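ok so for the tutorial part 2 we go from a plain amino acid sequence to predicted structure tokens. step 1 is just haveing the sequence, like this:
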Amino acid sequence: MSEAQEHDRNWEKWEKYARQVFPEETLKKMKESRRAFWERTKKMEKALQGEQDEENVKEESNVMPVIPELPRSTTLKVCPLCKYPIQDDAHGWLRSRTVPGKAVPCHVCTPRVRAIKASRTLASKMQMFGGSNIPDFAATWNFASYPPEGDLDAKEDVEAFAARRTGWRGLYLWGDGGRGKTSLAISCLKEALQRGESALFLRVSQYLRYLKQAELGLEQKTGIALLDLAFTVQWLVVDEIGIENPSEYSIRQFYDLVEERRGQRGLYTIFTSNCSIDDLEERWRPKHAAPGDYHAGSRVASRLREYCFELEIVGVNLRDRLNRKNNSDEAM
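step 2 — the prediction. this is what the tokens look like for a chain of 332 residues:
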């Protein structure tokens, strides 16, 4: 019996389990991929024995078969591949095909366990900040509540970003005060939360304060948790960038944050500011640096331009409008 025939026979033993998890098209791809893998492996064995030209099969024999992972939610009681009982905190192991006597994590059930553990860790850290850390005054904010007097074109662009229809993973909202930048950013976070994705709101002053306290040995646990969250949460809003003191410390923290998040797929970041990226770069320019000279702030600004879609929010001052309305209501 050939290796491929043996694989087909073994496949039949656990196919009834796999059919409970994977769609028919995925099952077909798995079967074809794994049969092709065994055939390539056999070719390589013959090549090593001098029965076949090694160069013709060396490259293709390194291709591994398709092995789908178990989803987070499953009705299975045991892993269809390693036969280990399905658990949220433990996974099965398999014998390595390349290193005799070595065990390797099961390709099917291990990613599920790791994802669950990572989710628990993330949830634990976010509880330290009251969940998503969205301010109480923004409890009713969403895209539907955005005032019609606001920048509706910008609202449409932000909604597209929230739905991942823009191709960008970074969004830089800027404009004069009271234009609704924070409202749109928080509305974006709420869309992500409704999809069950992790989201965190951070004011620049809060972010820098916790990090500085952690470096000084104060609030160290909170500071470390905040840094981990800022680097890993799926959706992050950094509010009011540019109001901080433009020190070397703050610029370095912004650089690390942007680099970490733009280097990982699946992470989305929204920055809000009263100034454009060009103005932010100028604000961060040290006094000893001449206009046009390259400086640490220039490096951060350059990364922001690469990472973010820059969107100016225009229109009326919504904050003044709301204050006038509230004062009028009180007078009545």
